[in-house]
Amino acid sequence: MSEQNRIVLAYSGGLDTSVAIPYLKDRTGKDVVAVSLDVGQGGESLETIKERALACGAVEAYIVDARDEFANEYCMQALKANAMYEGVYPLVSAISRPLITKHLVRAAHQFGADTIAHGCTGKGNDQVRFEVSIQSIDPELKAISPIRDLSLTRDVEIAYANDHKLPIVQTEKSPFSIDQNVWGRAIETGFLEDPWNAPTKDCYSYTDDPDFPPVEDEVVIEFRQGVPVKIDGRDVTPLQAIEEMNRRAGAQGIGRVDLIEDRLVGIKSRELYEAPGAIALITAHQELENMCLEREQHRIKRDIDKRWAELVYDAQWFSPAVKSLNAFINDTQQYVSGEIRMVMHGGRAVVVGRRSAESLYDYNLATYDSGDTFDQNASNGFIEIYGLPTKVAAARDVKFGNGIEVPVNDVE
Protein backbone atom coordinates (compact mmCIF):
# COMPACT_ATOMS: atom_id res chain seq x y z
CA MET A 1 0.00 0.00 0.00
CA SER A 2 1.40 3.41 -0.94
CA GLU A 3 2.02 6.15 1.54
CA GLN A 4 -0.90 8.14 0.10
CA ASN A 5 -3.36 5.45 1.26
CA ARG A 6 -2.51 5.18 4.96
CA ILE A 7 -3.53 7.15 8.05
CA VAL A 8 -2.29 6.30 11.54
CA LEU A 9 -4.97 6.81 14.20
CA ALA A 10 -4.44 7.17 17.95
CA TYR A 11 -6.99 4.54 18.97
CA SER A 12 -8.51 4.22 22.45
CA GLY A 13 -11.15 1.59 21.71
CA GLY A 14 -14.05 3.91 22.55
CA LEU A 15 -16.87 5.25 20.40
CA ASP A 16 -15.04 8.28 19.02
CA THR A 17 -11.99 6.52 17.66
CA SER A 18 -13.85 3.33 16.66
CA VAL A 19 -16.19 5.33 14.43
CA ALA A 20 -13.21 7.31 13.16
CA ILE A 21 -11.69 4.21 11.51
CA PRO A 22 -14.35 3.67 8.80
CA TYR A 23 -15.28 7.36 8.77
CA LEU A 24 -11.74 8.37 7.86
CA LYS A 25 -11.66 5.66 5.21
CA ASP A 26 -14.94 6.89 3.72
CA ARG A 27 -13.99 10.57 3.79
CA THR A 28 -10.35 10.33 2.71
CA GLY A 29 -10.11 7.05 0.81
CA LYS A 30 -7.13 6.07 2.96
CA ASP A 31 -6.67 2.87 4.96
CA VAL A 32 -6.36 3.31 8.72
CA VAL A 33 -3.73 1.85 11.05
CA ALA A 34 -4.89 1.88 14.69
CA VAL A 35 -2.28 2.61 17.39
CA SER A 36 -3.02 1.83 21.06
CA LEU A 37 -0.76 2.19 24.09
CA ASP A 38 -1.15 0.95 27.63
CA VAL A 39 0.17 3.72 29.90
CA GLY A 40 -1.51 2.32 33.00
CA GLN A 41 -5.01 3.60 32.26
CA GLY A 42 -6.66 0.29 33.16
CA GLY A 43 -9.83 -0.93 31.48
CA GLU A 44 -9.83 -3.28 28.53
CA SER A 45 -6.82 -5.34 27.52
CA LEU A 46 -4.73 -4.31 24.54
CA GLU A 47 -5.70 -7.52 22.78
CA THR A 48 -9.41 -6.70 23.10
CA ILE A 49 -8.77 -3.19 21.79
CA LYS A 50 -6.75 -4.61 18.89
CA GLU A 51 -9.54 -6.99 17.92
CA ARG A 52 -12.09 -4.16 17.98
CA ALA A 53 -9.90 -1.93 15.83
CA LEU A 54 -9.56 -4.62 13.20
CA ALA A 55 -13.29 -5.38 13.36
CA CYS A 56 -14.01 -1.68 12.77
CA GLY A 57 -11.95 -1.77 9.59
CA ALA A 58 -8.37 -0.99 10.53
CA VAL A 59 -5.88 -2.62 8.16
CA GLU A 60 -3.26 -2.89 10.93
CA ALA A 61 -3.26 -2.59 14.71
CA TYR A 62 -0.08 -1.42 16.46
CA ILE A 63 -0.32 -2.08 20.20
CA VAL A 64 2.29 -1.43 22.87
CA ASP A 65 2.51 -2.09 26.59
CA ALA A 66 4.25 1.19 27.37
CA ARG A 67 3.77 1.25 31.14
CA ASP A 68 7.42 0.82 32.05
CA GLU A 69 8.56 3.18 29.31
CA PHE A 70 6.07 5.80 30.54
CA ALA A 71 7.12 5.38 34.17
CA ASN A 72 10.87 5.29 33.50
CA GLU A 73 11.27 8.05 30.92
CA TYR A 74 8.32 10.37 31.47
CA CYS A 75 6.98 10.08 35.02
CA MET A 76 10.48 9.97 36.51
CA GLN A 77 11.54 13.08 34.61
CA ALA A 78 8.42 14.83 35.88
CA LEU A 79 9.31 13.65 39.40
CA LYS A 80 12.88 14.95 39.13
CA ALA A 81 11.38 18.29 38.05
CA ASN A 82 8.78 18.23 40.87
CA ALA A 83 6.43 19.13 38.03
CA MET A 84 3.23 20.79 39.29
CA TYR A 85 1.47 23.07 36.82
CA GLU A 86 0.12 26.16 38.57
CA GLY A 87 1.62 24.73 41.74
CA VAL A 88 -0.87 21.86 42.15
CA TYR A 89 -1.37 19.76 38.98
CA PRO A 90 1.22 17.00 38.34
CA LEU A 91 0.80 16.95 34.54
CA VAL A 92 -1.18 13.71 34.24
CA SER A 93 -2.14 14.09 30.57
CA ALA A 94 0.64 16.39 29.43
CA ILE A 95 3.45 13.87 30.00
CA SER A 96 1.65 10.97 28.32
CA ARG A 97 1.05 12.76 24.99
CA PRO A 98 4.71 12.92 23.90
CA LEU A 99 5.09 9.17 24.50
CA ILE A 100 1.92 8.37 22.56
CA THR A 101 3.04 10.67 19.76
CA LYS A 102 6.44 8.98 19.57
CA HIS A 103 4.72 5.65 18.90
CA LEU A 104 2.27 7.22 16.43
CA VAL A 105 5.20 8.52 14.42
CA ARG A 106 6.99 5.19 14.69
CA ALA A 107 3.89 3.42 13.38
CA ALA A 108 3.56 5.94 10.54
CA HIS A 109 7.11 5.15 9.46
CA GLN A 110 6.61 1.40 9.90
CA PHE A 111 3.34 1.18 7.97
CA GLY A 112 3.99 3.83 5.35
CA ALA A 113 1.58 6.60 6.36
CA ASP A 114 1.81 10.32 5.73
CA THR A 115 -0.97 11.41 8.11
CA ILE A 116 -1.68 10.96 11.82
CA ALA A 117 -5.17 11.34 13.24
CA HIS A 118 -6.18 11.91 16.85
CA GLY A 119 -9.48 12.29 18.67
CA CYS A 120 -9.06 15.72 20.27
CA THR A 121 -11.50 18.59 20.11
CA GLY A 122 -10.68 22.15 19.10
CA LYS A 123 -10.94 23.54 22.64
CA GLY A 124 -8.47 21.38 24.52
CA ASN A 125 -4.74 21.27 25.14
CA ASP A 126 -4.15 17.80 23.74
CA GLN A 127 -4.67 18.73 20.09
CA VAL A 128 -1.72 21.10 20.47
CA ARG A 129 0.38 18.54 22.32
CA PHE A 130 -0.15 15.86 19.69
CA GLU A 131 0.38 18.07 16.67
CA VAL A 132 3.35 20.04 18.00
CA SER A 133 4.97 16.76 19.08
CA ILE A 134 4.37 15.24 15.63
CA GLN A 135 5.99 18.27 14.00
CA SER A 136 8.89 18.09 16.44
CA ILE A 137 9.65 14.46 15.57
CA ASP A 138 8.83 14.43 11.85
CA PRO A 139 7.84 17.74 10.24
CA GLU A 140 6.81 15.93 7.03
CA LEU A 141 3.85 14.19 8.65
CA LYS A 142 0.37 15.74 8.54
CA ALA A 143 -2.09 15.72 11.45
CA ILE A 144 -5.88 15.72 11.46
CA SER A 145 -8.64 15.34 14.04
CA PRO A 146 -11.92 13.74 12.93
CA ILE A 147 -13.88 15.32 15.79
CA ARG A 148 -12.42 18.78 15.17
CA ASP A 149 -11.94 18.72 11.40
CA LEU A 150 -14.76 16.46 10.20
CA SER A 151 -17.54 17.63 12.55
CA LEU A 152 -17.99 14.30 14.31
CA THR A 153 -20.51 14.85 17.13
CA ARG A 154 -21.72 12.08 19.42
CA ASP A 155 -25.16 11.73 17.79
CA VAL A 156 -23.52 11.53 14.35
CA GLU A 157 -21.09 8.92 15.66
CA ILE A 158 -23.83 6.73 17.14
CA ALA A 159 -25.92 6.88 13.97
CA TYR A 160 -22.87 6.08 11.87
CA ALA A 161 -21.94 3.13 14.11
CA ASN A 162 -25.47 1.73 13.88
CA ASP A 163 -25.68 2.19 10.10
CA HIS A 164 -22.35 0.45 9.60
CA LYS A 165 -23.01 -2.23 12.25
CA LEU A 166 -19.77 -1.49 14.04
CA PRO A 167 -18.94 -3.85 16.96
CA ILE A 168 -19.38 -1.20 19.62
CA VAL A 169 -21.59 -1.75 22.66
CA GLN A 170 -23.29 1.51 23.56
CA THR A 171 -23.43 2.25 27.27
CA GLU A 172 -24.79 5.21 29.15
CA LYS A 173 -22.46 8.13 28.55
CA SER A 174 -20.41 9.16 31.56
CA PRO A 175 -21.31 12.63 32.83
CA PHE A 176 -17.59 13.41 32.84
CA SER A 177 -14.72 13.44 30.39
CA ILE A 178 -11.95 11.32 31.91
CA ASP A 179 -8.32 10.77 30.98
CA GLN A 180 -6.18 8.54 33.15
CA ASN A 181 -2.87 6.76 33.32
CA VAL A 182 -0.61 5.43 36.05
CA TRP A 183 0.52 8.98 37.00
CA GLY A 184 -3.03 10.15 37.70
CA ARG A 185 -6.55 10.83 36.56
CA ALA A 186 -8.19 13.94 35.04
CA ILE A 187 -11.93 14.59 35.34
CA GLU A 188 -13.83 17.42 33.63
CA THR A 189 -17.08 18.57 31.95
CA GLY A 190 -20.66 17.79 32.98
CA PHE A 191 -21.89 19.57 36.10
CA LEU A 192 -18.25 20.37 36.97
CA GLU A 193 -18.34 23.08 34.31
CA ASP A 194 -20.18 25.22 36.85
CA PRO A 195 -17.34 26.11 39.24
CA TRP A 196 -19.86 26.64 42.06
CA ASN A 197 -20.76 22.94 42.06
CA ALA A 198 -18.82 20.80 44.51
CA PRO A 199 -17.41 17.47 43.30
CA THR A 200 -19.49 14.41 44.16
CA LYS A 201 -18.24 11.02 45.28
CA ASP A 202 -18.67 9.51 41.82
CA CYS A 203 -16.06 11.92 40.44
CA TYR A 204 -13.32 9.96 42.16
CA SER A 205 -11.82 6.57 41.46
CA TYR A 206 -8.14 6.64 42.42
CA THR A 207 -8.73 8.08 45.90
CA ASP A 208 -10.96 7.27 48.87
CA ASP A 209 -12.72 9.91 50.96
CA PRO A 210 -10.04 11.67 53.04
CA ASP A 211 -12.64 12.49 55.71
CA PHE A 212 -12.96 8.81 56.59
CA PRO A 213 -9.42 7.45 56.36
CA PRO A 214 -8.04 4.14 57.61
CA VAL A 215 -5.30 4.17 60.24
CA GLU A 216 -2.29 6.27 59.31
CA ASP A 217 0.23 4.69 56.96
CA GLU A 218 3.95 5.26 57.52
CA VAL A 219 6.16 4.61 54.51
CA VAL A 220 9.91 4.84 53.91
CA ILE A 221 10.89 5.68 50.34
CA GLU A 222 14.51 5.35 49.23
CA PHE A 223 15.68 7.42 46.28
CA ARG A 224 18.79 7.02 44.18
CA GLN A 225 19.71 10.06 42.08
CA GLY A 226 16.17 11.35 42.29
CA VAL A 227 14.41 8.07 41.44
CA PRO A 228 12.57 5.86 43.96
CA VAL A 229 14.31 2.48 44.20
CA LYS A 230 12.93 1.00 47.44
CA ILE A 231 9.72 1.21 49.45
CA ASP A 232 9.92 -0.01 53.04
CA GLY A 233 13.18 -1.74 52.16
CA ARG A 234 11.81 -3.62 49.14
CA ASP A 235 13.30 -3.04 45.70
CA VAL A 236 10.87 -1.42 43.27
CA THR A 237 10.93 -0.26 39.66
CA PRO A 238 9.59 3.22 38.92
CA LEU A 239 6.31 1.69 37.74
CA GLN A 240 6.00 -0.41 40.89
CA ALA A 241 6.78 2.62 43.07
CA ILE A 242 4.02 4.66 41.41
CA GLU A 243 1.51 1.81 41.57
CA GLU A 244 2.18 1.10 45.25
CA MET A 245 1.99 4.75 46.21
CA ASN A 246 -1.19 5.14 44.16
CA ARG A 247 -2.73 2.37 46.23
CA ARG A 248 -1.47 3.46 49.64
CA ALA A 249 -1.77 7.23 49.24
CA GLY A 250 -5.08 6.80 47.41
CA ALA A 251 -6.50 4.87 50.37
CA GLN A 252 -5.77 7.97 52.48
CA GLY A 253 -7.48 10.34 50.04
CA ILE A 254 -4.19 12.01 49.08
CA GLY A 255 -3.80 13.71 45.72
CA ARG A 256 -7.20 15.30 45.04
CA VAL A 257 -6.97 18.59 43.14
CA ASP A 258 -9.85 20.95 42.24
CA LEU A 259 -8.52 23.70 39.98
CA ILE A 260 -9.60 26.60 37.78
CA GLU A 261 -6.91 26.02 35.20
CA ASP A 262 -5.42 28.27 32.52
CA ARG A 263 -5.46 26.16 29.39
CA LEU A 264 -2.88 26.57 26.67
CA VAL A 265 -5.61 27.62 24.20
CA GLY A 266 -6.55 30.61 26.36
CA ILE A 267 -9.65 29.20 28.08
CA LYS A 268 -10.06 28.90 31.82
CA SER A 269 -11.47 25.49 32.69
CA ARG A 270 -12.53 23.73 35.87
CA GLU A 271 -10.54 20.53 36.32
CA LEU A 272 -10.46 17.78 38.91
CA TYR A 273 -7.41 15.58 39.28
CA GLU A 274 -6.48 12.53 41.31
CA ALA A 275 -2.77 11.78 41.55
CA PRO A 276 -2.11 10.04 44.88
CA GLY A 277 1.18 8.37 43.92
CA ALA A 278 2.51 11.39 42.07
CA ILE A 279 1.72 13.83 44.90
CA ALA A 280 3.20 11.54 47.56
CA LEU A 281 6.38 10.88 45.56
CA ILE A 282 6.87 14.55 44.66
CA THR A 283 6.39 15.51 48.33
CA ALA A 284 9.09 13.03 49.36
CA HIS A 285 11.42 13.99 46.51
CA GLN A 286 11.20 17.70 47.28
CA GLU A 287 12.11 17.09 50.91
CA LEU A 288 15.14 15.02 49.93
CA GLU A 289 16.25 17.82 47.62
CA ASN A 290 16.00 20.19 50.59
CA MET A 291 18.77 18.16 52.23
CA CYS A 292 20.96 17.43 49.24
CA LEU A 293 21.01 20.48 46.97
CA GLU A 294 23.33 23.43 47.53
CA ARG A 295 21.46 26.66 48.34
CA GLU A 296 21.89 28.59 45.08
CA GLN A 297 21.49 25.44 43.00
CA HIS A 298 18.29 24.72 44.91
CA ARG A 299 16.94 28.25 44.37
CA ILE A 300 17.58 28.05 40.65
CA LYS A 301 16.06 24.59 40.43
CA ARG A 302 12.81 25.73 42.04
CA ASP A 303 12.48 28.33 39.29
CA ILE A 304 13.45 25.77 36.64
CA ASP A 305 10.89 23.27 37.99
CA LYS A 306 8.10 25.81 37.60
CA ARG A 307 9.16 26.71 34.08
CA TRP A 308 9.60 23.03 33.13
CA ALA A 309 6.02 22.29 34.20
CA GLU A 310 4.70 25.24 32.20
CA LEU A 311 6.62 24.29 29.06
CA VAL A 312 5.61 20.62 29.20
CA TYR A 313 1.99 21.60 29.84
CA ASP A 314 2.29 23.88 26.81
CA ALA A 315 3.26 21.05 24.41
CA GLN A 316 7.03 21.68 24.50
CA TRP A 317 8.31 18.25 25.65
CA PHE A 318 10.51 17.89 22.55
CA SER A 319 11.59 21.54 22.41
CA PRO A 320 15.21 22.76 22.68
CA ALA A 321 14.20 24.67 25.83
CA VAL A 322 12.99 21.56 27.67
CA LYS A 323 15.99 19.59 26.44
CA SER A 324 18.28 22.19 28.02
CA LEU A 325 16.25 22.32 31.25
CA ASN A 326 16.42 18.52 31.45
CA ALA A 327 20.21 18.71 31.34
CA PHE A 328 20.21 21.04 34.36
CA ILE A 329 17.57 19.03 36.25
CA ASN A 330 19.34 15.72 35.67
CA ASP A 331 22.66 17.20 36.80
CA THR A 332 21.08 18.35 40.08
CA GLN A 333 19.97 14.79 40.85
CA GLN A 334 23.55 13.48 41.17
CA TYR A 335 23.41 13.63 44.98
CA VAL A 336 19.63 13.34 45.53
CA SER A 337 19.88 9.95 47.20
CA GLY A 338 18.63 8.84 50.59
CA GLU A 339 15.51 7.89 52.52
CA ILE A 340 12.35 9.78 53.36
CA ARG A 341 9.94 8.64 56.06
CA MET A 342 6.44 9.89 55.48
CA VAL A 343 3.13 9.51 57.31
CA MET A 344 0.04 9.44 55.12
CA HIS A 345 -3.35 10.04 56.68
CA GLY A 346 -6.60 11.82 55.92
CA GLY A 347 -5.58 13.48 52.67
CA ARG A 348 -2.13 14.57 53.83
CA ALA A 349 1.37 13.22 53.18
CA VAL A 350 3.70 14.57 55.86
CA VAL A 351 7.45 13.97 55.88
CA VAL A 352 8.58 13.09 59.41
CA GLY A 353 12.09 11.80 58.81
CA ARG A 354 14.89 12.11 56.30
CA ARG A 355 18.46 10.83 55.99
CA SER A 356 21.10 10.74 53.29
CA ALA A 357 24.80 9.91 53.12
CA GLU A 358 25.04 12.72 50.55
CA SER A 359 23.15 15.30 52.57
CA LEU A 360 24.47 18.84 53.02
CA TYR A 361 22.83 18.99 56.43
CA ASP A 362 25.63 18.95 59.01
CA TYR A 363 24.44 18.28 62.56
CA ASN A 364 27.57 19.74 64.08
CA LEU A 365 27.02 23.00 62.25
CA ALA A 366 23.26 23.11 62.87
CA THR A 367 23.16 22.17 66.57
CA TYR A 368 22.87 24.73 69.36
CA ASP A 369 24.14 22.21 71.90
CA SER A 370 27.71 21.53 72.95
CA GLY A 371 29.76 20.15 70.09
CA ASP A 372 28.73 23.04 67.85
CA THR A 373 31.51 23.53 65.29
CA PHE A 374 30.16 26.77 63.82
CA ASP A 375 32.43 29.75 64.52
CA GLN A 376 29.89 32.34 65.66
CA ASN A 377 32.54 35.08 65.69
CA ALA A 378 32.70 34.79 61.90
CA SER A 379 29.18 36.22 61.70
CA ASN A 380 30.34 39.68 62.73
CA GLY A 381 32.44 40.17 59.62
CA PHE A 382 29.85 38.43 57.45
CA ILE A 383 27.07 40.78 58.55
CA GLU A 384 29.28 43.84 58.04
CA ILE A 385 30.20 42.84 54.49
CA TYR A 386 26.75 41.52 53.58
CA GLY A 387 25.03 44.68 54.81
CA LEU A 388 27.58 47.11 53.37
CA PRO A 389 25.67 48.00 50.15
CA THR A 390 22.47 48.90 52.02
CA LYS A 391 24.47 50.73 54.69
CA VAL A 392 26.10 52.94 52.06
CA ALA A 393 22.76 53.52 50.32
CA ALA A 394 21.11 54.44 53.64
CA ALA A 395 23.82 57.02 54.33
CA ARG A 396 23.14 58.64 50.96
CA ASP A 397 19.40 58.75 51.67
CA VAL A 398 20.01 60.47 54.99
CA LYS A 399 22.33 62.98 53.32
CA PHE A 400 19.64 64.01 50.85
CA GLY A 401 16.74 63.90 53.28
CA ASN A 402 15.22 60.63 52.08
CA GLY A 403 16.05 58.47 55.08
CA ILE A 404 13.53 56.16 56.70
CA GLU A 405 11.49 58.02 59.29
CA VAL A 406 11.35 56.32 62.65
CA PRO A 407 8.41 57.46 64.85
CA VAL A 408 9.31 58.54 68.34
CA ASN A 409 6.92 57.72 71.16
CA ASP A 410 6.18 60.54 73.60
CA VAL A 411 7.31 59.70 77.10
CA GLU A 412 5.29 61.19 79.94
From TrEMBL:
Pfam families: Arginosuc_syn_C, Arginosuc_synth
Localisation: Cytoplasm
Chemical reaction(s) catalysed: L-citrulline + L-aspartate + ATP = 2-(N(omega)-L-arginino)succinate + AMP + diphosphate + H(+)
Binding of ATP, residues: A10, Y11, S12, G13, G14, L15, D16, T17, S18, G119
Residues covered by the Arginosuccinate synthase C-terminal domain: 176-392
InterPro entries: Arginosuc_syn_C, Arginosuc_syn_N, Arginosuc_synth, Arginosuc_synth_CS, Arginosuc_synth_type_1_subfam, AS_cat/multimer_dom_body, Rossmann-like_a/b/a_fold
Cellular component GO terms held in the UniProt record: cytoplasm
Entry EC no(s): 6.3.4.5
Binding-site positions, L-citrulline: Y89, N125, R129, S177, E261, Y273
SUPFAM superfamilies attached to this UniProt entry: Adenine nucleotide alpha hydrolases-like, Argininosuccinate synthetase, C-terminal domain
Gene Ontology terms describing biological process: argininosuccinate metabolic process; L-arginine biosynthetic process; urea cycle
Subunit structure: Homotetramer.
Similarity comment text for this entry: Belongs to the argininosuccinate synthase family. Type 1 subfamily.
Listed name of the protein: Argininosuccinate synthase
Native source organism of the sequence: Bifidobacterium castoris
Lineage: Bacteria, Bacillati, Actinomycetota, Actinomycetes, Bifidobacteriales
